[in-house]
UniProtKB/TrEMBL annotation:
Keywords: Hydrolase, Metal-binding. Transmembrane segments: none annotated. Signal peptide: none annotated. GO terms for molecular function: hydrolase activity. Coiled coil: none annotated. It holds the Pfam family FAA_hydrolase. This is Fumarylacetoacetate hydrolase family protein. It comes from the Bacteria. Belongs to the FAH family. Residues 57-252 form the Fumarylacetoacetase-like C-terminal domain. Residues 4-52 form the Rv2993c-like N-terminal domain.
């Protein structure tokens, strides 16, 4: 059975809960560690959804859809292409993506993101699924000028607000075959399925665990499909994944 978990602010406090339609049932603690409910329920309209998790790191995979590799004029990688975003880049749905003063070309990239559920290291592909708590939506915001100029992606991908995630963490989904769609100002820019990935979700979790210890709440994004494009101040971005929901952010100038 699929469930949706949120981190939210209500009545002056930050809380965790289970999203049920237009209601949020408060949990006694972080959803990664407890299912116990407090008995308090909030209307969704009365809460502010936050980034659903505060990861120690955001692990990202580049060029994991063939069509996206083609539109970037890149070869399909022989093994996953791993890079990191700082935790300081994370924001939630409804928050603003800040277009940096020094930026020249900023792109959106809609992605399925995995939320790690337990501490893990050196996982086999078969063991990887057990380390996954659920999935969410992430926008891998990218500054292309610095990405091409620097030869590595730390600056281009690491600006504050360049990792919007949310609106919730969904469990119980067949994450390897979900519809993913991005709209900018109401126009569809990306539309694909996670089944088009080059490396599967389980393969990516296993791969990353060979490099670094996975911690509860960590985020692993799985690459973006074709259709990425520019963002400018004032743009309204909506990224939707089937069974998860829609991540909504507006872009503003710094």
């Amino acid at each position: 059975m699929s469930r949706k978990y949120v981190r939210f602010e209500a009545a002056g406090a930050i809380r965790f809960g289970v999203l049920d339609g237009e209601s949020v049932h408060e949990l006694a603690g972080n959803f990664l560690t407890t299912e116990e409910q407090t008995g308090k329920t909030f209307a969704l309209s009365d809460v502010r959804l936050l980034a659903p998790t505060l990861p120690t790191k955001v692990m990202c995979i580049g060029l994991n859809y063939k069509a996206h590799a083609a539109e970037r004029n890149k070869k399909v990688p022989e093994e996953p292409m791993l890079f990191l975003k700082p935790a300081s880049a994370v924001i939630g749905t409804g928050d603003e993506i800040v277009y940096p003063t020094i930026a020249r070309d900023v792109d959106f990239e809609g992605e399925l993101a995995v939320v790690i559920g337990k501490r893990a290291k050196n996982l086999s592909v078969e063991e990887a699924r057990d380390a996954i708590f659920g999935v969410t939506v992430m926008n891998d915001v990218s500054e292309r000028y610095y990405q091409d100029r620097d030869g590595q992606w730390g600056r281009a991908k690491g600006f504050d607000t360049f990792a919007p995630i949310g609106p919730c963490v969904a469990t119980g989904l067949n994450y390897q075959d979900l519809q993913i769609e991005t709209k900018v100002n109401g126009d569809v820019k990306q539309s694909s399925r996670t089944s088009d990935m080059i490396f599967t979700v389980d393969e990516l979790v296993s791969f990353c665990s060979q490099v670094m210890t996975l911690e509860p709440g960590d985020i692993l994004t799985t690459g973006t499909p074709e259709g990425v494009g520019r963002l400018v101040a004032g743009d309204h971005v909506e990224m939707t994944i089937e069974g998860v929901g829609t991540l909504v952010n507006k872009v503003r100038a710094q």
